[in-house]
Design a protein that fits this description.
Its main location: membrane. This is Glycine betaine/proline transport system permease protein. It is found in: Cell membrane. Keywords: Cell membrane, Membrane, Transmembrane, Transmembrane helix, Transport. The chain has 17 helices and no strands. It is mostly helical and about 325 residues long. The protein is flat, with a radius of gyration of 25 Å.
Amino acid sequence: MMEALTRLLHPLRPAVAEGRIPLGEWISAIVDWLLAHAQWLFDVIVWVIDGLTTSLEILLLAPPAWLLAMVIVALAAWRVNWRFALFALAALALVLGLELWRDTLSTLALVLAATVVSLVIGVPIGIWAARSDRVWNGVRPVLDFMQTMPAFVYLIPAVMFFSTGKVPGTIATIIFAMPPAVRLTNLGIRQVSREMVEAGLAFGCTPKQLLFKVQIPAALPSIMAGVNQNIMLALSMVVIASMIGAGGLGDVVLRGIQRLDVGLGFEGGIGVVVLAIILDRITQSFGQRRRAGLPERLRELFGITRDNPNGNKSAGNP
């Protein structure tokens, strides 16, 4: 053990002799050690992330473009309103007209993969932090560090550990986008009223039942706000991740920058904006009380209820 530590610290002796803090050398030495002794772990991570991203991309590209567009428009009409559905239809038609459909779906697959992994890791950490002040006090500085570190910095270790391509781009996006999921999950559960918690305990809820049947449902708007912010931050990393081969719409924007082609860069940017607006509005709707849709309004108009399935408004009147 001491011999390994000596080998690890050997390159740092010149910096120490100069009287400065060799932070960069320390980090480089740690990275070299991890590359030499933990390559199996990185291989597992690559296998998981690559499998998830590739599967999502294949799933999105499998149906015809018009069919997937109609599914998205129907979802927009169901979760938001018909006006936004018309906007989504026009926006997706624009993406198709610009011949950016494949790039858009590639970006969507990357964003969805990064969001899924971020939530799988971030939401449990947020729940744990909400139940323990000590955990929250330890997690909060890490989240501050993750949010204030420039996004470009995440590309360096991602490339060193995972080479180039979609996998390092997805991993850098996961790290950059995770903090809101942790913060807003913690905030939502902490803001559940004490009366609601005491009522659950009074009805005999176990700690697990209290969490899943009382606290999480009550905190769902805040948790969904974290999901929304997670997706928006993931989209903001699209162009940066394209610098290490993530592809998608970010690659279109990057080509525009490299060629000084304003039109090409603008087209890629429009694709990112369209994707951001559609995802933003749909994910926001899951954290809000949905207004009555067209079928519900028609039932109200004709007086159709469970107690009065025949639709006779005068039922029950003398």
